[in-house]
Structures
1.
Amino acid sequence: MRKLKAKIMDAVGLERTLTRLSHEIIEKNKGAGNLVIVGIKTRGAIIAQRITKRIEEIEQTKLNIGLLDITLYRDDLLGKLEQPEFKGTDIIFSIAGKDVILVDDVLFTGRTIRAALDELIDLGRPNTIQLAVLIDRGHRQLPVKADFVGKNVPTSIDESIRVHLKETDGHDEVLLMHPETQA
């Protein structure tokens, strides 16, 4: 059982953070002309859709957006008893020569991102792959660093981050959860 330790972002803070990330992506890439956005299912895909909408409004252009399901690329499937639920990758455009903005909600060990990179490379050879995350909580097991970070949140290894989005949870917020201690 986990208990709330802190509210990291409310709905207004989350929207402000996504707007800032969108501007940073545009600035680093000198516009949106060569960008494609790819979100890691589930919450990374929702965040990617929101960032795409903002960039399209700012740049007055239409972007390709794709959704990545890394289930078959995970390195922790062996030894699991349950059958993984495959939700399907949805990228119907070429990423070859493009600047791919890979989006996820929380960056932790780096293993999800490694799986996503493996899958993206199987789909084509992009010009660059840049990582955008809402929260970076540290504790990397692989040499992965985000290019765009909404907020760095130092955590202990036993704490967790919960991202609630209105599309899946009915409201927007980011919470830091702490395990309940047994007395």
2.
Amino acid sequence: MASQPNAQLPLFYQNLIPLTSDLHADHGILERTELGFARATHAVPVTVDEFVMAQRNYPIVFSDGPEGVPLALVGLREGENLFVDADGKWTDGAYVPAYIRRHPFMLARLTPDADVLSLVFDDQAGLITADAPNKLFDADKQPSETTKNILGFCEQFEQAVARTKSFMDELNKLGLLMDGQAQIQNPGMDQPATFAGFKMIDEKKLQNIRGDQARKMVQNGMLGLVYAHLFSLSQIRNLFTLANPELAQG
């Protein structure tokens, strides 16, 4: 149910090109008014920096595989985002993951052996055009404040990704992840609805870790993240209600 997207390009990105003053000196960015591009996904990557905010609206689970990542479930069926309406509007008051807010930009290596990450964007998103008033470069072809802010956001996101990788490495080292399953029983249902295909933290193993390991998790903030994940799992019922309003009424 929550497999990590496996594609040549990252989730939501169709074609990435570098942002340069030579090619985009007169270009600006249009104001984004909708998030319809995220409508066809049920799971969005999140970083550990977002756990506290994300757990208020979404179950946070972990993708399967050796390079598992935390995912905010925004739906329970493949290709269904319950938080984006027909007009592409995200549900009022619900947290929008940074991965979505970063689009159409991201940092990437232009060549496999590049030492630095460069700012690139998806030119298929239709947001970067010569007609847009919010320019990305000034008259001297230097990055505008808009571009500096975008770059800063993308740099912060990459730093959060690095912290998230360290968190995942530690979870795997401690052996705390297990195959996840959730069951929801509603009145009028003959059998409970069962959801699986993701990883979650094994509470029994968590309760039995060594004292020195527990102290380390408290000191480095890891334990708080673990409990944010565990508390978030109650949101699976809310997703089920959103996806099946007729059962909730029954």
